[in-house]
Write a structure and sequence with these properties.
This protein is mainly α. It has five helices and two strands, in the order αβαβααα.
């Protein structure tokens, strides 16, 4: 662009002479008595179409430069956003993996505890069943609850109350009657 302007300017180069601009020496001659000569000043006059072309090229170059800068900024922002998103995803994945590891360990601990409690329950149940059978053999006259007519009406009343009432405290009277009936039955046998 500079080279083109320089070549076109050579074509339109005009040297300005002091005679074309009027008598410049007359204003300075009074003070210097006409001895001071003004040197001609070179100037460039560009044609209107050349001037418009230069301005248009400059504006186009500015617009293009601004557009390229904007595109570079948009790309940089996009790359920064993508990098931040990747870091955030990586952080979230790490947190999820930590949580899963911790959760698996807690689940395993809970499963082990449940298995242990089940084993203890089974051991206690077996021991209790053995002790009850041993006591039944020792005391042949002990009534077996749940079979026979022992406190049948009281049991039915207590069960009906539990089924019909939302608050089991309302069935306390039936529970006390069942307890008294059971004690009497055990004592009588």
């Amino acid at each position: 662009l500079y080279h083109q302007i320089h070549q076109l300017a050579k074509v339109y180069y005009i040297r300005e002479h002091s005679s074309t601009m009027g008598n410049r020496n007359s204003s300075t001659a009074e003070g210097n008595q006409g001895e001071a000569l003004e040197t001609p000043v070179p100037s460039v006059i560009l044609a209107d179409d050349l001037q418009a072309e230069i301005v248009n090229a400059f504006q186009n170059k500015n617009v293009q430069l601004k557009w390229q800068n904007l595109q570079a900024q948009i790309l940089a922002n996009s790359e920064n956003r993508v990098a931040k998103e990747e870091l955030r995803k990586l952080h979230i994945d790490n947190e999820i993996e930590k949580w899963r590891t911790m959760n698996d360990a807690q689940q395993q601990a809970l499963d082990d505890k449940v298995d242990s409690l089940r084993a203890q329950f089974a051991d206690t149940e077996a021991a209790l069943t053995f002790d009850v059978n041993k006591m039944e053999k020792k005391f042949q006259s002990v009534p077996k609850f749940g079979s026979g007519d022992s406190c049948l009406n009281t049991r039915n009343d207590l069960v009906s109350c539990y089924k019909s009432k939302a608050d089991i405290r309302q069935c306390d009277a039936f529970a006390q009657a069942m307890e008294l009936c059971t004690k009497q039955t055990v004592m009588s046998k």
